[in-house]
Amino acid sequence: MPGNEVIPMEAPVVIPPIPEAEERNGELGPPDEAHRGKPFPRDEVRTAGPVAKGGIRNGVRPPTEERLDDAAIEAILRVREFSLFYGQTQALKKVSLDIHPRAVTAIIGPSGCGKSTLLRSFNRMNDLIPGIRTEGEITLRDLNLRAATTDVVDLRRRIGMVFQRPNPFPKSIFDNVVFGLRMLGLRNRAELEARAEESLRRAALWEEVKDSLGRSALALSGGQQQRLCIARCLAVQPEIILMDEPTSALDPAATARIEELLIRLKANYTIVIVTHNMQQAARVSSFSAFLLNGELIEYDETIRIFTNPRVQATEDYITGRFG
Question: What's the pTM?
């Protein structure tokens, strides 16, 4: 391949406005207690047990008698009473929520509240840390993620991850994209090339690198490297993509490209993103979960969280009173 091409730099893009939240029969979420942790109807409060301001405890709103269609209430990832301990220190406290398919869910909260810890629990990245202990349940469809029999390698293929800082391997652009495929045993060159092109197109990077696939990935700009990491994740066809502050190390133009990409990707993928940027959460996510001191304080559609939160602590955080 030619070796003297100039890899185009990134241009600013315009992020489309977030559409109005869709109401279904006056409801924003599921109807029954079995779907605990999903967003609930807008005008009811829980009356039993200790509650925060607005009637919500651990992100849960009360059930209603009206049942939505199955597609509306189905979740791809379910978290129930999940707790995590670093030795004797409890980092997550009985978190329960549902992650909805083909949507972006933002996890927000101040530093040290457990956002990244929760995110890494979804594909058991925390297993790599000594002294970790967990309780509760996390399921991917019907798979119990905490079970000793769970194939962690396959789990991390099904639930991929993009980290805070771009981490391309010191290899060519092509070899970066197909790295996971080769680890899974794919050797056919034609198929590797087809999958690499498809993934780079989905990551909005193909037109910028198609004539330079043999060059080092380290020659790319920071934003391009992050999109390359997204392409590498997409190549193994995950069901869920986890993103831990994926734009925090990028400039505004590169951040805009990643946000535009997330909006497009959610048509085919389930995305969970940790972010400190409230404007970013409002722009790209359909649902938002607010964590504080390891507890899930509130979980709802993003438009609701940012315009009319039920819990005072949520409002205080979003409006900048703390955090």
Answer: 0.78
